[in-house]
Amino acid sequence: MGFEGNERGEEKEGVMATDFFWSYTDEPHASRRRQILSQYPQIRQLFGPDPFAFLKIAAAVFLQLWTATFLYNASWLKILIISYFFGSFLNHNLFLAIHELSHNLAFSKPVYNRWLGIFANLPIGVPMSVTFQKYHLEHHRFQGVDGIDMDIPSLAEANAVTNVVSKSIWVTLQLFFYAFRPLFLKPKPPGLWEFINFTIQIALDVAMAYFWGWKSLGYLILSTFVGGGMHPMAGHFISEHYVFNPKQETYSYYGPLNLMTWHVGYHNEHHDFPRIPGNKLHKVKEIAPEYYDNFDSYKSWSQVIYMYIMDRTVGPYSRMKRKLSTKSE
Fold first, then answer.
1. How far apart are CA 163 and CA 266, in angstroms?
2. SS3 at position 228
3. With contact defined as beta carbons under 8 Å apart, do 309 and 243 qualify?
4. How confident is the model at residue 10 (pLDDT cuts 50, 70, 90)?
5. Is the pLDDT of residue 307 over 80?
6. Across the strands, what pairs with 321?
7. pLDDT band at 13 (very low <50, low <70, confident <90, very high)
8. In terms of Cα–Cα distance, which of 73, 75, 88, 72 is closest to 207?
9. How far apart are CA 285 and CA 269, in angstroms?
10. How far is residue 70's CA from residue 176's CA, in Å, rounded to a whole number?
11. How do residues 140-161 score in pLDDT, each as one tens digit?
12. Which of 148, 176, 244, 282 could staple 142 via S-S, CB 3.0–4.6 A?
């Protein structure tokens, strides 16, 4: 089974919710972090950058750019097929590398991580690395906080996506919602780093189209789009925080795709210890298993997508929200 853990403590009525789940306590990760560190202080030894992050990112960037140039004269059908079955994995890997870099897990100096994030952004085709970091760190600090955590769907999404068809469309386009939601609901003024990110990315896109043609650039864009929609890699968008059990708001995935996604599946562990790089998160579970073994978890992201679409009680409202507390400010 793709979903592991206890069944819901309530009977499903077959009707989709018309409001979010609401919590009246602080997000659970900060308190659990303190508990685990008090019991297992050796976990602090796992903190710090991944020394191989740069090499892994560089390999993915150059392989994807080379593939794009190789396809300059291919048919659009061939480009679409290669985008879905190959390029999507590389671009989603780079998206999650940017996630890793937003926590400064490649270098000790934040500015080096920012430059590497802009480099990792290149095959994705759309400038997003710098802006992503701004919103993602708020997602950690203010998890579920109404009006601040932009990882949570908007009311418009929740009210529109109510059945199998609309959920299928939403999943296919979820990368667009993920990218544009904060720009509409909580826009932040762009700064110098956004300008640098934008300029370098557009320069790469123009160069790709000029020297190798629109098909090469199209391959990169398609790889990003299909890899963020109805695709196994994109299952993590749903698995991480969509509530299938009202008593739990963060879920981990312990399947093979962790090897290609910077181990983002270890999501409870990641939120508990965002200063630990992905390649060491499994050690947190090994050191402190009693804190994680009783949580519901997944072994298949594809099955998570299927469950999300087919379960009539689950949809964009299936997220935990809370009001901003004075402790979070």
1. 29
2. coil
3. no
4. very low
5. yes
6. 22
7. low
8. 72
9. 7
10. 27
11. 999 999 999 999 999 999 999 9
12. 148
Burial (CB count <10 Å: 0-12, 13-18, 19+), residue 168: middle
How many whole angstroms separate alpha carbon 32 and alpha carbon 315? Answer: 28
Eight-state DSSP code of residue 115: H
Residues in the chain: 329
- How far does Cα 29 stand from its chain's mean position? 17
Helix (H) or strand (E) holding 121: helix 110-121
Place of tokens 């189209």: 209
Distance from the first to the final alpha carbon of the chain? 40
Whole-angstrom distance, CA of residue 126 vs CA of residue 198: 8
Handedness of CA 169, 171, 176, 177 (dihedral sign): positive
- Per the prediction, the chain carries an average pLDDT of 94
The token duo for 165 is 């068809």
User: What value, to the nearest 5°, has the Cα angle with vertex 149 and ends 148 and 152?
Assistant: 130
CA 143 from chain center: how many Å?
14
Instruction: Tell me how far apart the alpha carbons of residues 126 and 132 are, in angstroms, rounded to a whole number.
Output: 12
- Among the listed residues 53, 39, 57, the one whose alpha carbon sits nearest the alpha carbon of residue 108: 53
Residue with tokens 């009977």: 11
221/175 Cα distance (integer angstroms): 12
148-157's contacts with Cβ under 8 Å and 24+ in sequence apart are 148/186, 148/324, 150/181, 150/182, 150/185, 150/186, 151/178, 151/241, 152/20, 152/241, 152/319, 152/321, 153/177, 153/181, 153/316, 153/317, 153/319, 154/181, 154/184, 154/185, 157/181, 157/316
Contact 125, 220 (CB under 8 A): yes
From the number of C-beta atoms within 10 Å of its C-beta (0-12, 13-18, 19+), residue 301 rates as buried
Strand 297-298 to 252-253 pairing:
parallel
Record the tokens describing residue 12, joined without a space. Answer: 């499903």
Burial of 187 (0-12, 13-18, 19+ CB in 10 A): exposed
Residue type, 137: L
Q: Where are the beta strands (DSSP E) in the chain?
A: 3-4, 21-22, 252-253, 297-298, 320-321
The tokens for 77 are 């059908």
Prediction pTM value: 0.92
How far is it, in rounded angstroms, from Cα 253 to Cα 299? 6
